[in-house]
Design goal:
about 10% strand; alpha/beta; single chain; PDH_N; aromatic amino acid biosynthesis
Amino acid sequence: MNISPANLDQLRDQIDETDQALLSLLKQRLALVHAVGEYKSQHGLPVYVPEREAAMLAKRRAEAEKMGVPADLIEDVLRRAMRESYASENDAGFKQVNPTAGDVVVVGGNGKLGRLFVNMFRLSGYSVKILGSQDWDQAEAIVANASLVVISVPIDKTVVTIERLPKLPADCVLTDLTSVKQAPMKAMMAAHDGPVVGLHPMFGPDIASFAKQVIIHCDGRGAEQYQWVLDQMRLWGPRLHESDGQEHDETMSMVQALRHFTSFAYGMHLQNEDADLARLLAFSSPIYRLELAMVGRLFAQDGELYASIITAAPENIKMFKRYLQNFTSALTLLEQGDKQAFVKKFNEVAHWFGGFATQFQSESRDLLLAAHDRVTHD
């Protein structure tokens, strides 16, 4: 097709007009989502309904294919729009599951994670009080009418904070938001005779919405009495996964501690090598750029927090040592120049991953495309 400069300008003008039409449609969609949020708030419906999302995406993909539009394109656009939608639905608030509840007290509610939960309970209609580090002389009065006390303090201060609590009302639910569970659960069970449940939000305080997030909960006692807390959180949109303290801490050794430690070690290695980060980025494929971003993300946050997570449980150090042994074993194969042994081990690991390998390949493809879209070159 022969396109003259004049024709090109006209085509670009038409693209601009189409983009403006898209903006208007997105604005309309957000307004409709806000109305949906109001309805969900009034009727106690959860923000995120996976079945509805999956069905809607499947239908839009099929419609796109019939129109000659790439199905992946419409799914990408809609997923991004839905992420914004989930965040905007928070503005409507949430139905209060337990309208007869007394105060919700967040110990450490001035911290980042604590403030997030303070906000969510207030959006759900509860009277929320904060017990901060300067308020302990008033602690007894603050918790006097509490139906829920949430401990949201640094890991290394969690147990001593629990032990410092005044006597709570008999039917008050006591919980924590710590990323280790065995020690805090033991402390809560000793400090309070009423209902106890351990919580671990698998996200940081900077999320825009609870939709699609994960919260682990560990039973202490009085499940029927603390059920309202779980039901309330479900309306916020996360997936709740039950575990016991031991399983939780063992799993977190790999999911959190090992991942953070290896990122820390890799970042330290880059520093000691005096690597040129700008040069690394310039030479990066999307996958390495994404990996480097995940490492760099760690160092944009609080070192005290990650030191606490990494050293939170004795099991973590044992896990790191086993990782070092496996790393050394892999390095030995390379030092020996035994390529076939390396390939054999590679295939053994691939077999162990099984179907998850192809699942992760598919999931990472979308991440890599998103990372690639964000790249700009001067």
